[in-house]
Design brief:
The chain has 95 residues and is mainly alpha-helical. The model has no long low-confidence stretch (mean pLDDT 82). 55% of the residues lie in helices and 0% in strands. The chain is built from five helices and no strands. α2 packs across α5 and α3 packs across α5. It has one domain: Alpha-helical ferredoxin (Fumarate Reductase Iron-sulfur Protein, Chain B, domain 2), CATH 1.10.1060.
Length: 95
């Protein structure tokens, strides 16, 4: 995986990127899990070509035809993944 130029949306340059629409949908599930197990979703979203691959160009929100603001959803999802990772470290340490 090579670095992208600053400000270039990853979706333009990396076709293995999961995409802002899928990540916004994942963020909606995380926001309202309705009893779903989220670990597998966090694992998928934390893959190298997922939330961490985004360059924060925010173009996905600018061009989104549904005004969903996928960039904001992606940032929320990153935060939830990081929080879950820290919590899992503490759970392992408590054993």
């Amino acid at each position: 995986m090579r670095p992208l130029p600053v400000g270039l949306p990853v979706a333009h340059a990396d076709h293995s990127y999961i995409g802002p629409a899928a990540l916004a949908a994942a963020a909606r599930v995380v926001d309202e899990p309705r009893g779903r197990e989220l670990r597998s979703l966090f694992a998928l979203a934390a893959l190298p070509d997922s939330v961490w691959r985004c360059t924060d160009a925010m173009q996905c929100s600018v061009v989104c035809p549904e005004a969903v603001d996928p960039a904001r959803s992606l940032l929320r999802l990153r935060r939830r993944i990081a929080i879950d990772a820290v919590k899992s470290l503490f759970r392992r340490g408590a054993r």
